[in-house]
Specification:
- 2 copies of one chain form a homodimer.
- Helix content of chain A is 43%, strand content 14%.
- Chain A has 397 residues and is of the alpha/beta class.
- The first copy, chain A, folds into 2 domains: 22-268, 3-Layer(aba) Sandwich (Aspartate Aminotransferase, domain 2), CATH 3.40.640; 271-396, Aspartate Aminotransferase, domain 1 (Alpha-Beta Complex).
- In chain A, strands 2-10-9-8-5-3-4 form a 7-stranded mixed sheet, with helices on both faces. Chain A has a 4-stranded mixed sheet with strand order 1-12-13-11.
- In chain A, β8, α7 (184-187) and β9 form a beta-alpha-beta unit.
Chain lengths: 397, 397
């Protein structure tokens, strides 16, 4: 009758996030809870800030995790920078650009949309065009790594165009941080938000954000109060800033232990090696996927290594395949979203889940389940193709 | 040079929250992360909803944890119910009524404030008066258990007055849930928010909320979109509601394991026993505190058992005492906030921290540290007084 303790199975997480959380990070979560104003906790907060500055390649002092998932990080960027009547140029090439539009409009701003096909990168020419038509745009926003399609956009070029028009740049780097280069300072990004459950392989629940000095100046001189009390960076800095910490809200203590540990692991591996690891395992998976006869929907130069959007073989019930992968192999891969629902699978190789063990496990499971379903694929060759591709990479490096 | 893993000490948490998190809940946090759309996770979400309905004594289907700390739960209640121009009667008898005012105004509402002295309960006569002057008030908001002062207000009576004027009732029950009776349906509360790190003794990071059918009807027929995308209950119900779950944001998976476990523990103990336990340990602590010569600032009938606001002996550096309690005894108690900063200590006996072990540990540490500081208190008697008081309670029951 009464509800019992919950004991989740051990899944292999190869969807669009969460990715596999290592035993080391899980154990960090279980360390004793201490107070959110405890001097030892405050010292750890400073380390988290430093580690995030490294992960995001920025010197911005205002670099910290928002106490809620990535969607709240997105909202923090928009509600702090957008004031009623502000014009914001928003690029949409997947689900998350649409969510940006919602955020702009709910903050009283005017969203000027630039549309690109789902599965393609944002087209810089369209951005230049939009600025010509809207020279008064205050903010430019785009998604660096579209989790819904697996496409990577050219952040440096896009930000450059916006800077020529003196606009503030907001970048979604939820899926890119830790998996592909994210260089906030070099690219001159004014506000960025990320997530913990993708290439950082910590559990979901926190959203690293970073604001440039220019963004801070805008936030400090707003005409209207930030519409969210919880996400008002003016207040949050009283708790996360330097000097004496003032209580704003109670931080998610144990979640922060987990993020700290995952960032220490990233620091120890180094960003360069983490990027390389994501690239190599993507190439191995790709060899297997293509040997099987499936295709990538994103063209080669725009492909995210950590999120592989692949076609579904004709006549296959894609949801049934995912259910079988989950039930028979404890393997989670992602469905398509929005315009791509029912048309693709999204295979994540993020953080801890970016390993040859994962590549082989996934290809083997797909091979078996698709084979059983009678799909028109080439069975029995994927794993070997992946191994061969990975061997070549190892030799070359 | 490089940042190392963080190993927090084991503190004894007797401040205003977080309270001590049991080993059982900590171990639940460390269970393997699974997907936020995994059927097994979705089944666990349903159990969390059921367990929260029990904790809040409500049948409201829209009872769920917001994926962020209590401040976000507060904001969720206000941004979903308040539309621009709406009049809201807000009671302030501590810090959190002031935060409610901020929330009303940032949502475009008009806050009509009722002020009561810090450390007293909300005065129902003032509420009746405010409604007479403002018969057009759409919403009435109050804090059930003021964490900043330790005062408990009479929720049933306050809500009744609001209902006579047909207003929606928003209640802050962050510190009351699990420690003192919270009866949402019986009291006719339309929207309530709570926290996990007080009497539920789970780590901070989630905010249980509940909305009545009447509140839902108001939310569904709003003229303006909810200003927060992340906290829009219309969207959140797509993920937490019944039927097929649609992705809205990624839930804080492992945090939810912890909350689930703490709620299972509460269910197994029963609410009645938990309330009794909080009352008994409060009375034991009180006997010790008073034997020592310290006073409570809240009058007896309005005192929260789980949050004891006590005076500081003359001539004592209160911050130095707290530092010494932390450094020499690993004991955290709380400072005063706002109008009570420097004037009181806040001693929490919440959830796992409500035990005779905690009462004795705290009294013993206070006795030693205050004795050393040369405070004018009666030393060496507190623990025995507490034990004697507890012994009497045990005999009486």
């Amino acid at each position: 009758m009464a509800i019992q303790s919950f004991h989740p199975p051990k899944r292999v997480l190869m969807g669009p996030g969460p990715s596999d959380v290592s035993e080391r990070v899980l154990q960090a979560l279980a360390r004793p809870t201490i107070g959110h104003l405890d001097p030892l906790f405050v010292a750890m907060m400073d380390e988290v800030k430093q580690l995030l500055q490294y992960a995001l390649q920025t010197k911005n002092p205002m670099t910290l995790p928002i106490s809620a998932p990535g969607s709240a990080g997105m909202e923090a960027c928009f509600v702090n920078l957008v004031e009623p009547g502000d014009k914001v140029i928003v690029c949409q090439n997947g689900v998350f650009g649409g969510r940006m539009k919602e955020n702009v409009e709910r903050a009283g701003g005017i969203a000027v949309m630039i549309e690109d096909a789902w599965g393609t990168a944002v087209d810089p020419n369209k951005v230049a065009e939009a600025f010509k038509k809207n020279p008064d745009a205050k903010i430019f926003a785009f998604v660096h790594a579209e989790t819904s399609t697996g496409a990577l956009s050219d952040a440096r070029t896009l930000a450059q165009i916006a800077k020529q028009h003196n606009a503030l740049v907001i970048m979604d780097c939820v899926t890119s941080v830790g998996g592909t280069p994210v260089l906030l300072d070099e690219w001159q990004i004014d506000a960025a938000y990320s997530g913990t459950q993708k290439c950082l392989s910590a559990p979901p629940g926190l959203s690293p954000v970073s604001f440039s000095q220019r963004a801070l100046d805008v936030i400090k001189t707003r005409k209207h109060k930030v519409q969210s009390w919880f996400l008002d960076m003016n207040l949050i800095m009283g708790y996360w800033g330097t000097g004496k910490r003032a209580y704003h809200h109670t931080a998610p203590i144990n979640n922060l232990y987990g993020l700290h540990e995952s960032l220490v692991m990233l620091q120890n591996e180094s960003l360069e090696k983490a990027w390389q690891r994501h690239r190599d395992h993507h190439l191995a998976l790709r060899a297997g996927i293509e040997a099987m006869g499936l295709q990538f929907i994103v063209k080669e130069q725009d492909r995210l290594p950590q999120l592989n959007a692949v076609t579904i073989p004709d006549g296959v019930d894609e949801a049934a395949v995912r259910t079988q992968l989950l039930n028979d192999h404890n393997l989670e891969i992602g469905a398509g979203l929005g315009a791509l629902a029912g048309k693709i699978w999204r295979i994540g190789l993020m953080g801890t889940s970016s390993s040859m063990w994962h590549v082989e496990y996934c290809l083997n499971a797909l091979d078996k389940v698709l084979g059983k379903a009678g799909a028109k694929i080439k069975t029995g060759v994927a794993v070997d193709s992946a191994k061969a591709a990975f061997g070549k990479l190892a030799k070359a490096s």
